[in-house]
Amino acid sequence: MSITEILFWFLTALALGSALMVVFSKNPVHSVLWLIAVFFAISGHYILLNAQFLAVVNLIVYAGAIMVLFLFVIMLMNLNAETEPRKNRWLMYAGWLSGFLLMLVIVAALKEAETRDQLALMKGGDIGLIKHLGRVLFSEYVLPFEISSVLFLSAMVGAVVIGKKD
């Protein structure tokens, strides 16, 4: 077993264990911290796949900005035992049923999926490098890229208009 395989399995176990802790943690702040651990493990997987740009963007955007936003929202909600809503048994059963149905859909989709015998390039190639990503983004996908930039611009203008005082 090579060091890359050991690192892959360690990061996989870290990601799965942290994801389970996100779901099963009673404290919402602890759930956010476990989610940050999941993002770090996923960034490690990106580095193993020679996608350094995706790893850095994942850390900056998700583990940095989005998690700070989650923490602010959780702390502004001022969660305590008095404000917690009463638990409804029917909602709990509906949650379990929808989770089970989602698992069935995922299993059926994976069963029908086509398996390929292709290997990912590790420690070589320029697939995940920024130079290759920019070249592909501005040649093959220039129209979707520009459409998404107009969409982001309109969302920013909409946020300014909504947030503007009368």
Give your account of this protein's structure.
With 166 residues, the protein is mainly alpha-helical. It folds into two domains: 126 residues, Up-down Bundle (Four Helix Bundle (Hemerythrin (Met), subunit A)), CATH 1.20.120; 38 residues. Helix content is 74%, strand content 0%. The chain has six helices and no strands. Helix 2 runs antiparallel to helix 3. The mean pLDDT is 83.
Any chance you could write out the topology, listing elements then pairs?
Blueprint: H1 3-24, H2 28-48, H3 52-77, H4 89-112, H5 130-137, H6 142-163
Summarize the entry for a quick read:
The chain has 166 residues and is mostly helical.
Number of strands: 0
Which architecture of the largest domain would the CATH scheme give at its second level? Up-down Bundle
What class, by secondary structure content?
mainly alpha
Measured as a percent range, the helix fraction is over 70%
- The fold-level CATH name of the largest domain is Four Helix Bundle (Hemerythrin (Met), subunit A)
Q: Rough shape? A: extended
Uncertain regions spanning at least 5 consecutive residues = none
Number of H- or I-type helical stretches: 6
The CATH superfamily of the largest domain is: NADH-ubiquinone/plastoquinone oxidoreductase chain 6, subunit NuoJ
Largest sheet: none
- Element order: H for helix, E for strand: HHHHHH
Distance between the terminal alpha carbons, to the nearest Å?
65 Å
Domain unit count: 2
